[in-house]
Amino acid sequence: MPNLNDTRGILVNYFKTAWGSTTKIAYQNVPFDDTGLTEYVETKLIPLHDSNACIGSYDTKRKRHEGVLAIFIYTKQNSSAFRAYELADLVADYMDNKKIASNLTTSASINYDEGVRKDGWYSVNVRIPFTSDEQ
Fold it and tell me: What's the CA gap between 98 and 130, in Å, rounded?
């Protein structure tokens, strides 16, 4: 079952497939050029808590990862918040309450309006909680 790195890969690939060509996607620690874009999203895995999640012997123990997949939505400053929230609703449609893999599920997302950044992008952050068990 997925370790933390595999969990990240599975979640990001699931999102990438669902998102399709809606906007460009920036990934953690990968160069990205936003020149000429009017909107894009960025993915980031945020681990929150790991624990042992099992009943039974040491041989059957599972490690549980809990965290959020954060999708940062960027639209150009002074272009209204409508498009950013429209994209946030799409993220929720694609990612909320899904069984992504046999031991990887998501819950309802939470939106955070991050406002205008210094570089001229307006940002809404959609955080999708996940739980992933590894064996």
Answer: 9
CB of 76 closer than 8 Å to CB of 60: no
Tokens of 122: 């307006």
Domains of the chain with bracketed CATH = 4-134 (3.30.2000.20)
For 89, list phi and psi in degrees, rounded to 5: -65, -35
In 3D space, the residue among 74, 79, 68, 54 whose CA is nearest the CA of residue 133 turns out to be 54
Mind giving me the DSSP string for 56-87? S-GGG--EEEEEEEEEEEEEETTS-SHHHHHH
- Single pTM value for the model: 0.87
pLDDT per residue as tens, the chain (135 positions): 468 788 899 999 999 999 999 999 999 999 999 999 999 999 999 878 767 666 666 666 677 888 999 999 999 988 878 999 999 999 999 999 999 988 899 999 999 999 888 788 999 999 999 998 876
